[in-house]
Amino acid sequence: MRKAPVFGKQIAEKWESHAEQIITELLETIISAFESTLTLNKLEGDAAFFFVNDDGSEHLSDRIVVCMQEAMNAFSKKASEMLFIQSCPCDPCQQTKNLRLKIFAHKGEYQIKKIRHFE
To answer: Which of 42, 71, 80, 117 is the most buried (most CB within 10 A)?
Structure first.
């Protein structure tokens, strides 16, 4: 009879579910911060891609910069609110304090290309 590694599997599943919950909550926070100005294009892992169509507004770039700052503030606030998970010994919970938001902006023309049902 072979012994199954149930405990190790349970720990791995717990870690995975905690990591997924942390990333989901932080992504929801970022999406909420950006959606008033930008359109969510897609999610890839822990990255969210947004775009905005130039509406001819004189202050569009200023609104985008403000939106980026609001997203940074919302991310920091949400991450600090999640510090209660520091009592959990799993690696994803312990590493939450090290998470940082990175925002990259591109100005210029773009094309959204659809291949099958993917953009």
So the answer is: 71
